[in-house]
Amino acid sequence: MKQPFIMNHPLIDHKVTLLRDKRTGSKEFRALISEIAMFMCYEATRNLSTTEIEVETPICKTTAKTLAGKKLAFVPILRAGLGMVDGVLNMIPAAKVGHIGLYRDPVTKEPHEYYCKLPADVENRDVILLDPMLATGGSAVDAVRLLKNHGVKSIKFMCIIAAPEGLDALTKAHPDVEVYCAALDEKLNDHAYIVPGLGDAGDRIFGTL
Ligand SMILES: O=P(O)(O)OC[C@H]1O[C@H](OP(=O)(O)OP(=O)(O)O)[C@H](O)[C@@H]1O
Ligand SMILES: O=c1cc[nH]c(=O)[nH]1
Ligand SMILES: [Mg+2]
Predict the structure, then answer these.
(1) How far apart are the CA of 155 and the centre of ligand 1, in A?
(2) Does the global pTM surpass 0.90?
(3) Which residues cross the membrane (predicted)?
(4) Which residues of 69-95 are buried (b: 16+ CB within 10 A; e: fewer)?
């Protein structure tokens, strides 16, 4: 089983603290989610393969690295995952974007799928699944299953805050998926919200509190 990659970086910790603050309004919240996603994308793409090409600088000809290998797709889990999309696209503008719509039933906490639109060639792409919150893990487990049912073989999951329960569920169900998170919190409360967490990410991004 792969260990989750916890960002552990002062700039990210600072931004996550601002996200947690209940006084942070939607405009700033959205900007912070996007910035954190951009930083995280840097780590999640660290092992992309490169190849040498010839390039002529104003000084001389040389060989230099360029991205090689498979193409990427970002797949946000609606709604909250949408907040991470512009940050990661800032880093990799050529990536395709798929969407998986899931909402968590407020009573059972089980995820329900309501939308799925993926790039036609998704099975040939490295997919980075995006959702700021990994709580019980139900939504992430289902989203990864959906991607695998579409033939995707290489999947990374990027979240901003994870609960130990969600990490456990995701790594048990999908041990092949690498997980990147900005912060690993303490636990879930009786309503399956992350403690201390940041509240409901989707509602805070879209102002639907
Ligand atoms: O790990 P889990 O227990 O499944 O919980 C995490 C899910 O809950 C939230 O979505 P929500 O259902 O609130 O939908 P929203 O993004 O539309 O607000 C969050 O964005 C995750 O998708
Ligand atoms: O703490 C939580 C749990 C699920 N979804 C959220 O947005 N926040
Ligand atoms: Mg929500």
Answers:
(1) 19
(2) yes
(3) none
(4) eeebbbbbbbbbbbbbbebbbebeeeb
